[in-house]
Amino acid sequence: MRFDILTIFPEFFGALPDQGILGHGVVSRALRTNLASAHIHDLRAFTHDRHRTVDDRPFGGGEGMVLKPQPIFEALEFLNLPSKSARQTIHPQREAVILLSAQGKRFTQSTARRLATLDRVVLLCGRYEGVDERVSQLFCDEELSIGDYVLSGGELAAAIVLDATVRLLPGVLGHADSSRYESFGEPDPPPSATTPGAPYLDSEMRASADSNNAQPPRSTNSSNGILDYPHYTRPADFLGLSIPDVLGNGDHLAIRRWRRQAALAKTLANRPDLLLTADLTDDDREYLATLGYEAPAE
Ligand code: SAM
C-alpha cells in the first residue's frame, strides 16, 4: 500500500530514514519490509515564485491565511492524480485523496480498516486557516478529522491516519488477528451455542474447542467493539499493588472471563458510548447489570 503525504513541513515526518514517525516501530517495519511505502511531498516544490508562496489572504476578509489551490493541484498532477471525477473512472475505489480537516468526518478504527483495503492513500495536510475549499471539491474523496479539537496543522493528523492504517495491513502485526484483540476490534462471528465457554473464546479457539474440546490455545479474546482489557507484567507486586489473583492461576477460561469483564468495566467507566453499539453477549449484559448498567436491547 502506498501513502503520499502533501505538506508544507516535510521535515515533520523525519529527515532521515530512522527519524520521525516513518523511522520507528511498526510503521518503520512495514516500510522496510515493503508492505507499505510512504512518500512525503513538499508543497513549496510546486510553487513558481521567488518566495515559494503556498498561502494567500482569504476572500471576504478575516483572520489568517489560506493554502492556495494551485500548488496542491500541481502536486496532485505530478502524482498522476487527476480530478476526483476523472480518477473515479480510472481506479474506482482503489485509492483515496483525503484532506485532513477539523471539519471532516471523524476518523475511527473502522475508517482505518476501510483505508487499509486500498492500494493508495493521499493525505493532504492543511495549515493556517485551512485549505481553499475548491481543493476538497475538485480533488478530495473525503475530509477526515481525528477529533473534536483544532490542531495547528494536518501533519499530526496525517501521521495518526498513517499509523492506525499501516498496522492493519496484512502481515504488519505479528499475528493476523492481533488487531481484532484490542480496543475497537471487529466483532467475532457468533459463538456456537454448544461450545463450552463460548462467550470468552475467539473464532480460532472455538474451532479448536468445537473439534476436540481441547484447551483453547490463545490467551486473549476479541474486543467486539469495546475497549481492551487491562494488561499486567512483572513484578506481580508493584508499590504495594498486586496483579489480580486470577491472572496467576493458569486457568485459561477464568482468565478470559476476567478479561472480558474487566474490559466491560473499563468501557463502562471510560467510554460508555461504545456499549450502545458493541456486540454484547447475554453474559456481558448480566455482568454489566451487576455494575448497575442496563445494556440496550439488541
Ligand atoms: N479554520 C479551521 C477550522 O476552524 O476548522 C482550522 C484550521 S487548522 C488551524 C489548520 C489545519 O490543521 C487544517 O487545515 C487541517 O489540515 C488541520 N487540522 C486541524 N484540526 C484538525 C483535526 N481535528 N483533524 C484533522 N486535521 C486537523
- Helical segment tally? 9
The strand line-up of the biggest sheet is 2-1-6-5-7
Top CATH class of the largest domain: Alpha Beta
Estimate the global geometry from the Cα principal axes. Answer: elongated
Q: How would you characterize the largest beta sheet? A: 5 strands, parallel
Please, what is the CATH homologous superfamily of the largest domain? Answer: SPOUT methyltransferase, trefoil knot domain
Using the coordinates shown, work out and report the CATH topology of the largest domain.
Answer: Alpha/beta knot
Give the second-level CATH assignment, the architecture of the largest domain: 3-Layer(aba) Sandwich
Q: Which range does the strand content fall in? A: 5-15%
List cofactors, ions and other ligands.
S-adenosylmethionine
